[in-house]
Amino acid sequence: MNFTDFGFTTELQNGLDAMGFNKPTPIQEMAIPIIQEGHDLIACAQTGTGKTAAYVLPILDRIARSDHSHLNTLIIAPTRELAQQIDQQIEGFSYFLQVSSIPIYGGGDGMIWEQQKRALREGADIIIATPGRLLSMMASDDVNFEYLQHLILDEADRMLDMGFYDDILRIIKMLPAKHQTLLFSATMPQKIQTIASKILKHPKQISLATSQPAEKIHQEFYFVNMDQKLPMTIDILKNPAYESIIIFSSSKENTKKLNTDLKKAGVKASAFHSDLEQKEREELMRNFKSRNIRVLVGTDVLSRGIDVEGVSLVINYDAPHDPEDYIHRIGRTARAEESGVAITLITQNDFQRFQRIEKLIGKTLLPSPLPEHIGVSPVFNSTTRSKRPQRKPASKGNGSTSNNRKPNG
Ligand code: ADP
Ligand code: MG
Fold it and tell me: Is the pLDDT of residue 138 over 50?
């Protein structure tokens, strides 16, 4: 299948060509015709599969064909970074179209607030907004939704995790009753089904295997003691083959600490966390994308939805809290056409998390041996292993039921 099969306007097709989009991804192939037919849609596909273009393209096409002079489409996204990214993609696709978009997000200074307000007053075809900021804008200024035709909830799972459920319902109450609603999510927990049943009308559903990391990601696990984490990480970072690296830690505090520890060890790194000013965050992302920054340390804020292309390595310095986060994090590498590496450090305390990742992925993951100078991997004891179903003793073997996991090698 080709993008030309969707029958987009020549200008939009030219935009696609300019962006280097040749073949639709599976989610795009499935979602675009459904959206073109005007159905509501719930689409579930893992991070990095091209969900943005799946909804942006048919909507841009429809706007371009219409006599558009009113706000047509509202896209709600969980974070400002994501809102900006969606806005940038729209700008790229609509390079040859007369379609305008505005991102509306919190943070930043009063000037940004004023700029967003002014842009809103001047009007746009598409608003990409974070829920909180949109509500404050709507409270202080009239946003005219009278002609709204499309509502998109992007990263719906993330928005619910972040507690935006009520905000979203409040926003939806202010929209005209008749519009097409599209819900995109990387995972489909029950609570998404619940919200979907409230706000979508006879939706079509697409679900592509959600809990498998992209095949092109090479995954490695190391069992380590706490005090081996830092030396092991420094060791990994010495490999010049990794040109662009994200290190995930579990909290803002750990992010700052790790950043400092790396600096002390002579590793150039930058920390990305919520204490930074909006401007600083944007600058960090820009420098990371342009390869001026090689190592970026951050929390799961970095893991969902943010499109950083060509990350060669993801290190899970702290094991992800829930297994879906593992998929999201390592989804930062091996985007679209590329391949990448994901390395996860597991301590005794993380062992159950490790088992949950195994369960989600549906296979047994073998730890790699540590380099000699880092020391020996700990062997996790059977109390931590007891959750795992015990294998029956082999009939003629030594009868051992121990499945203590030892590092191989
Ligand atoms: P998701 O929202 O599913 O996480 P994105 O929409 O952010 O994924 O897309 C991931 C990356 O893949 C982006 O860099 C995007 O530009 C790129 N991409 C998406 N679709 C295509 C395509 N059909 N051809 C080439 N690149 C694509
Ligand atoms: Mg996305």
Answer: yes
